[in-house]
Each structure stands twice: as structure tokens, then as C-alpha cells.
Write a structure and sequence with these properties.
468 residues, two-stranded antiparallel ribbon, single chain, binds cobalt (II) ion, 8-stranded parallel barrel, Cyclin A, domain 1, 3 domains, globular, 22 helices, TIM Barrel
């Protein structure tokens, strides 16, 4: 039997519709989906926490409780960004512990935990806490392409993840780069070396995901992630309907109720139009070019934006050639948040100044100092020599919450919401979040998945790519 985790209301809607799916549009179908036979439904975490408050004026904790109430047989699965939790920076251990406990209490059954750099140290507190409260834990191995990211490299990462006592290892291919034969080799290697069940999570981005699932299943993968077809393909996961047919005759999915799958798909087909305005060519199209230049689509648009700001779009070709150089010099980090922003911005700097690394952005210096974790490969000698030692940034902890903020909290979880997104949370608690009209599609499109980061004291907008 193959265990299927449905991603429709988390990863799929995040990947295709900018995380805008409202709780009220999920609830009516959950009872039916509960009877399909899915092992779990990924329904919380990733960017949904932020998006609930920022765009939907919804309390994410309330959403979690409502989902849990409707799923009696199907596990509630969440995606946790390791030390980043559901935010964009590292938090102190006490915050991580507190967050995991509260998530469990509010309904999460399965935690899937990853670190963008595959630094196992960044997973430890979350994994340990989730184990301690009695949750099921899947530890992630983030997949990317580079000269050092060999099959053996990923098996080695999996072995270190397995040492933390997890229930399964998940191969997380957020850019859709995993090739079928490689999937086969990695799944087989991980199973052999760790003895743990292996889960496959592929995005359809380059068109490989279904093929890689089939080969990975041949190699013994126990779990796959799929979405109902109206929310599948493109930047999302393969459709369960397709995989169901692809595996017909194997008996592997005989436990799923196809009739209910079709009913649920009809439901999502019916609400899909409301969210169409949040999709774009980049999310809908299958584009294998990422396999060639290895620069994710969203990072490309980010580079265009940055160059436009400097009135230097003509330098795009040089910047594109610079990205692999900077990535190599940083030890080949996967190009996902926050690394896609750091590598991209430094590449732009290198080209605009005309001299590589004559100006270093602060985030790159912090990365070189090890403040983001251990890089997958070696950082270049030049950068190691150039970057002066510096103190790690202080991590937010519960004690940092100002007294004035507490009076806005109605429940204990609100303190965590505040720590994760202080300004936004206060606006939310005070009822000051402005609901934007879904109909304003063009403006929405421009805003989708962009957020602001500080680069050397200057705020710039960047697009979150390969965000999970
Ligand atoms: Co994903």
C-alpha cells in the first residue's frame, strides 16, 4: 500500500494561487476528503500562517482547529521550516519548542521539518520537541542540483536526519528538478542505509514529478504527495487522479476511494475560478529550462526587478552568468529562500560594481560566518578571508515580547503569532488588516509572493522562490 498525503489545501494552493485559499472554502469538503483514504492532508504551515493573517484576515490557529475538527480519520500534516518555523528567520530554541507544542495541541499530527541548507543542527530542536509531544515526524532532505549534490550526498544527509529519530525521511524537491533514475537511486540508498520509510515530495515545475514518483515507488518509496487535479500540476504536485491511473493494476492505491476523489475534485474545480487571479504564467506553465540554467523562475523575476531598480536591465546576461559563480563560492546552497535572495543580490552587486565581492551584502557575510547554518559544500577561500568575524544576530525569544503587546493577546498562541510577525500581528489583533479584493487581479499579481528584505540598510522587494 502506498501512503498518499494530499497537499491541496497547503502546498498546492500556495504554489498555484499565492496561498490565498480561504478556510471557508476548505471546510465544506473536508468531511468528504476524510473518507478518501489519504494517509494525511498537508493543511498547515509553510506560508499559510503568514498569508492567513496578511491577506485573509484569518487567525491561523483557528484555521488549524477547524481543519482538525473535520478530519477524524486523516492525519493533519504541517510543514515546518526548521528553526525558521513558519517565518523567514531563525528563532530561539524556546520559541521553537513552544511553537511545536502549540501546533500539536491545536491539531497537527505529522510534522514535516526541513532546513534550506540541509543542516541537521537546524532541525534538532523541532524534531526533538515533536517527538516528545508524541507527534509523527518526517525529516526532510532538500533536493537540488550541483556538482556536490550527488546521490551519495543526499543519502549521507538522510543518514544524519535518521540519527535524530524520525519516522520517515522525505525527499523534498521543491523546484521539480529530481530526475526519475536519480529518485530511484536516492530512495533505494536511503532505505538501505537508514531502514526508514521514504516519502517523495516533487513539484511538477519541470514536468518530471510523475515520472520520478513512479521510479521512486519502484524503488520502494512508501509515501507520495499529490493534489486533487484542479490544484495540481504546474508549480504544484502531480494530480492524484493521474497517479491513480498510472498505478492501476499494482494494487498500491486500491485503498483510495476514486468516487470521493472525483467528488472532491469537482468541488475544487468549482471554486478554482475565484482564485485564478493569483496564478501566473510562472506558476501554471511547465518549464524545463530551470534544469538547464538552474535558476528558479521566481529568482529570475527577482533579478529583473533588482536590475530595473538600478536601471541596468542590459546587464541581465552578465548577472545570469554570475549566479552560478556566487553559488559555487558559497558552497552550492540550494537556491531557495533565503539563499536565492542572497545569491541573487550579491550577483547583482558583483556585476554593478564591476569587481566581484568589492561590496559584500550583510546577509552574505552572515552566511559566510555560519549564522544560517553549515553550508552544503566549501565556501571559497577568498570569501572566508574577506569576511570579518561578527557576532550572530540575536534570536527572538518569548522574553522579547514587550508588555504593551500582551494586552492584545486573547490566547497563549497569540504570543507566538506576535513573535513571528510583530507588526502584522498587532495590526491583525487590532482589526486593522485591510482585505484586498480578489478581483484586482493585476495588482494582486504584482504583489504575489513578494516581500521586503533589508540589504545593507536599504529595503528592497524580493520574491520568495521555492518557498515552502
Ligand atoms: Co512543496
Amino acid at each position: 500500500m502506498l501512503k498518499v498525503i494530499d497537499t491541496t489545501i497547503r502546498d498546492a494552493q500556495q504554489s498555484l494561487f499565492a496561498t490565498r485559499l480561504k478556510t471557508n472554502d476548505m471546510l465544506p469538503i473536508l468531511e468528504k476528503m476524510d473518507d478518501i483514504g489519504f494517509y494525511g492532508m498537508e493543511s498547515w504551515g509553510g506560508a499559510t500562517f503568514d498569508a492567513c493573517i496578511r491577506y485573509l484576515n484569518e487567525d491561523p490557529w483557528e484555521r488549524l482547529r477547524k481543519i482538525k475538527r473535520n478530519l477524524k480519520k486523516t492525519r493533519v500534516v504541517m510543514l515546518l521550516r526548521g528553526k525558521n518555523l513558519v517565518g523567514y528567520r531563525h528563532y530561539s530554541d524556546s520559541v521553537v519548542e513552544n511553537f511545536v507544542k502549540r501546533s500539536y495541541e491545536n491539531g497537527v499530527d505529522v510534522f514535516r521539518i526541513f532546513d534550506a541548507l540541509n543542516d541537521v543542527e537546524n532541525l534538532k530542536v523541532a524534531v526533538k520537541t515533536a517527538r516528545a509531544v508524541g507527534a509523527e515526524v518526517h525529516g526532510d532532505v532538500v533536493y537540488t542540483l550541483s556538482p556536490i549534490h550527488t546521490v551519495d550526498h543526499f543519502i549521507d544527509v538522510a543518514k544524519r536526519v535518521a540519527e535524530m529519530d524520525v519516522d520517515a525521511i522525505r525527499i523534498k524537491d521543491m523546484a521539480g528538478l529530481l530526475a526519475p533514475r536519480v529518485a530511484y537511486d536516492i530512495v533505494r540508498g536511503i532505505k538501505k542505509e537508514t531502514g526508514l520509510p521514504v516519502a517523495l515530495h516533487c513539484h511538477y515545475t519541470c514536468g518530471l514529478a510523475s515520472l520520478s514518483y513512479i521510479k521512486g515507488i519502484d524503488a520502494g518509496a512508501e509515501f507520495i504527495d499529490t493534489a486533487l487535479f484542479p490544484f495540481a500540476f504546474g508549480a504544484s504536485q502531480p494530480a492524484i487522479e493521474t497517479i491513480y491511473e498510472a498505478l492501476r493494476g499494482t494494487g498500491l492505491l486500491a485503498h483510495l476511494n476514486l468516487e470521493l476523489i472525483n467528488d472532491a475534485a469537482d468541488y475544487f474545480e468549482g471554486i478554482r475560478d475565484r482564485y485564478k487571479g493569483y496564478s501566473s504564467e510562472a506558476t501554471e506553465r511547465i518549464d524545463p529550462r530551470a534544469l538547464r540554467h538552474q535558476i528558479p523562475g521566481g529568482m529570475l523575476s527577482n533579478l529583473v526587478l533588482q536590475l530595473k531598480e538600478y536601471n541596468a536591465l542590459s546587464k541581465m546576461a552578465s548577472v545570469l552568468a554570475e549566479v552560478p559563480v556566487v553559488r559555487r563560492d558559497l558552497g552550492y546552497p540550494p537556491l531557495v529562500t533565503p539563499m536565492s535572495q542572497i545569491v541573487g543580490t550579491q550577483s547583482v552587486m558583483n556585476i554593478l560594481t564591476g569587481k566581484r565581492y568589492s561590496v559584500l551584502i550583510k546577509e552574505l557575510e552572515n552566511y559566510v560566518r555560519g549564522h544560517y547554518g553549515k553550508p552544503p559544500g566549501q565556501i571559497s577561500r577568498e570569501l572566508l578571508e574577506k569576511v570579518q568575524p561578527g557576532l550572530p544576530p540575536t534570536l527572538p525569544s518569548m522574553e522579547d515580547i514587550p508588555k504593551a503587546a500582551w494586552e492584545h493577546f486573547k490566547k497563549d498562541e497569540d504570543a507566538l503569532t506576535y513573535l513571528l510577525f510583530p507588526q502584522l500581528a498587532l495590526q491583525f489583533f487590532k482589526g486593522e488588516i485591510k482585505l484586498t479584493q480578489i478581483e484586482e487581479t493585476e495588482n494582486r499579481r504584482k504583489e504575489v509572493k513578494w516581500f521586503r528584505i533589508k540589504v545593507n540598510g536599504e529595503e528592497i522587494e524580493v520574491r520568495i522562490e521555492g518557498e515552502e
